[in-house]
Design brief:
Length: 273
């Protein structure tokens, strides 16, 4: 997959799209005192879209509380939202080394997928099925297992050819549907399912208008996610929607300060001209 947040790859193999994205929701990891207040402050900045400010707070926190898992989790999450996937992976690896909780490891699985390590992401998701913390995890974290595994299976099908497609391809949509069923409030689950319908041919259930409608819902749920919003605009462009140019212009206005948005959605920027 092309790198995305919730970046994603619009790849298909015999009509089966591979989907990934920067994380949109997520568990707020409560740090052990005395880092709690600092993490909460950074979290508030991240939710507001002030990623640079959030990272500055977290970098200072790292110096004060080296190895604090909650600081590292929030740092990984923030890097991911900004489209810095290599940095996100390094941060979440350190968080897992300090605390191998289900929540930390599901973010690790996502981060592995975002740097194209789909086998490792898939294997980790399979292992997390039996993690003792899964049952008590919140709905978002449980939903992410299906979202990430579906994305990993789709990417594997794309990269490794027909035999991988036969084994994994037809299950991708089911994984995304499980993600929505597990947490209907997870915008990433709706996003991945919407992209499936947008990109898949009709022979395997593709329906661009349906996909764009689902993407619109995901974008409404998380208006600050540059990947979800970017794919929503792409859906409008693909379906020749009259609102495509206006939404592209809004996208550029909202995300032009993020280099990753320009790299991943050059077509949206061109539509806005």
């Amino acid at each position: 997959m092309q790198k995305l947040l919730i970046g994603a790859l619009g790849l298909t193999l015999m009509g089966l799209p591979a989907v990934a994205a920067p994380i949109s929701g997520g568990t707020f990891m409560v740090a052990a005192a005395p880092s709690t207040a600092i993490v909460a402050k950074a979290h508030a900045q991240r939710v507001a879209g002030n990623y640079g400010a959030a990272l500055a707070i977290l970098e200072d926190a790292q110096k004060k509380f080296p190895g604090d898992a909650a600081v590292l989790y929030e740092m990984a999450f923030t890097y991911d939202r900004r489209g810095d996937y290599d940095e996100a992976l390094e941060a979440i690896k350190k968080a897992v080394a300090a605390d191998d909780s289900y929540e930390n490891q599901i973010l690790l699985a996502h981060s592995l997928l975002m740097v194209d390590k789909y086998d490792a992401a898939m294997d980790l998701c399979d292992k997390l099925e039996s993690h003792p913390g899964r049952k008590s995890a919140d709905a978002w974290s449980r939903s992410e297992l299906y979202v990430v595994r579906g994305g990993a299976q789709g990417l594997k099908a794309k990269r490794e050819g027909v035999f991988a497609m036969i084994r994994y391809g037809l299950g991708v949509r089911k994984e995304f549907e499980k993600g929505v069923d597990t947490d209907s409030d997870n915008p990433r689950a709706h996003y991945t399912l919407g992209r499936y319908f947008l990109e898949a041919p009709g022979a395997v259930g593709g329906d661009p208008k349906k996909g764009t409608t689902i993407l619109a819902k995901a974008a409404k749920m998380d208006d600050m996610d540059f990947v979800i919003r970017g794919w929503y605009v792409r859906g409008l462009i693909q379906t020749n929607d009259a609102d495509a140019k206006a939404q592209a212009e809004r996208y550029v206005k909202d995300f032009s300060d993020l280099p990753a948005s320009k790299k991943q959605f050059a077509d949206v920027y061109n539509k806005a001209k």
